Amino acid sequence: PSEDLKALMEKSYKSFTHPEVVPTRRVGDLEIMELFHGPTFAFKDVALQALGNLFEYFLLRNNKRITVVGATSGDTGSAAIAGLSGKKNVECFILFPEGRVSPIQQLQMTSVLDDNVHCIAVQGTFDDCQTIVKNLFCDLNFKKTYSLGAVNSINFARIMFQITYYFYTYFKKIPECDGVMSFSVPTGNYGDILAGYYAKRMGLPVQHLIVATNENDILNRFFTSGEYATRGMVMQTSSPSMDIGISSNFERYLFYLFGLDNKRLSLEMRQFKEQGKLKVDENLLQRARNDFLAACCNEAQTKETIARFYKEHNYMLDPHTACGVNAVLQLRKEAPAVCTSGKSKHLMCVLATAHPAKFSSAVVAATGVEAEMPEGLARLAGSQVRFTVLAPKAETIKEFIKCTVPDPTGSRNVYTLQHYFGLSVAAAACVGVGFALGRRA
Length: 441
Hints:
Largest sheet: 6 strands, mixed
Radius of gyration: 22 Å
């Protein structure tokens, strides 16, 4: 019912600290779309606050339960937990790569002690976490038994909500521009910019969509050479939410690039899984370049961009947003006619995906100044934390879920000696502490 939907959306966004929810600020000749005014100060809040409320609404109406499993490189996890903590009929398991998220990102996740929230530090990379989640969903019996649900952009509802802020920003800015806008999007997993691509396909007047990567540049290399290939390792950078070796949402774009040919897509992705690479011909590469521009921002460029914008505009960028800004600057140098405001009043908008205070070490290194700490982050200091350290194996995570998920019907009988034995074996395989509970400064 429309009145229920309206109430759910009002509930979802009342926790945002800015009256516009997603404001846009003019910084130099760029528009900065600030997506970090939600409860976890990252763009994922826009989708996951709503998704959490929708989960609860439909589960309670139908007397169902769901086990949400997600992988995070930093921001998805805290946003998912903020959207799902305390929700009825929902269990939430978040996998994050141990030692590869910022201290504040980890604290945002692990300091939530609600009984339905379970954080798992996986001894590997984000790609390991993401692979585990995909494997769990591919086990159809396990998926059905535990009613698995997703918060990663594997769940299209995530993309759907992200589409909205492209339209929202455009309609706010259309009196100031020539009727067409461009967007530069910091991206690792390709979900946020894919939302922009769908917005364009839906009719939004978009001139350019810029794929901005950090040194983990599998996407930039594709749009440069036509080859989508892994490098075998993930670089650890100051923009950890983009430290991703395989962009899971890119497969969705390839479906359109291959002319909606699902058989070819399946064949190409099978080859990619086996060989770690796929390559398109010159014609398809040109079509892809018509859809997207791309640039890679290394660590030195990230630092320089943060410093420059603070010095010239007194505006603090987080390292992810700095990648988006730097991509625009690079493309303007390479092709002056591209991405330029000029007399046409063409607006270039960079998506600011996180609050700079979440990445204070990178900001201080670039500017010598601490970013102003929002109250919601400041009060995390000294919080009690809880998380489990596990090996990067799907079976290990399955056993943990089996031993954790409540079974009010008694139909699964998950609390058996067999399951406890399975979990003890899984825990023994870990180097870290099985359950970390303590004080975090």
